[in-house]
Specification:
The protein has 154 residues and is an all-alpha fold. It has 6 helices and no strands.
């Protein structure tokens, strides 16, 4: 317990590492886990609806299993995929799958506009996959106007 309460050393803002954003290298496993996590998001959302305030046992149990697995998968995916892309893909696909499943199961009526907007979400998610973080390495110089940015010696 004492280790938990012990304060961690804080690096001064003047170090170069503080000014450099993290560069991530996404592998195929990050994307696969992210897609599975998005599907699990739809599973827990639908289970939560069917649980009726946790008063129905089976969907409540499905929710209690799918929710942490979805979050753990998102967390793993963020190790290799930028948060801006990973979270947008996770929520976008999760929402698209949830709405699609609700329409297929008959709890929501399909419409041309819903289908059009779902296609838009999926198109945007595909675009984010290909754009990612642009593959640009982090700028080691930071912001030149930042007083904490590293300065050349000499």
């Amino acid at each position: 317990m004492a280790g938990f309460l012990r304060r961690r050393a804080v690096r001064p803002a003047s170090t170069a590492a503080a000014a450099v954003p993290e560069t991530k290298a996404a592998r195929g496993s990050h994307w696969i886990v992210l897609l599975v996590s998005a599907a699990l998001e739809a599973v827990w959302a639908l289970a939560l609806h069917e649980a009726h305030g946790f008063s129905v046992l089976a969907p409540s149990l499905v929710f209690l299993v799918a929710f942490p697995l979805s979050m753990a998968g998102l967390g793993y995916a963020m190790r290799g995929i930028a948060i801006s892309v990973a979270y947008a893909v996770w929520t976008g696909l999760g929402a698209a799958i949830t709405v699609s499943a609700a329409m297929l199961l008959g709890s929501e009526a399909p419409s041309v506009l819903k289908l059009l907007f779902l296609a838009g979400i999926i198109g945007c998610v595909i675009g984010l996959k290909f754009v990612g973080d642009g593959g640009r390495p982090a700028d080691p110089g930071g912001d030149p106007g930042d007083p904490a940015a590293p300065r050349p010696i000499g």
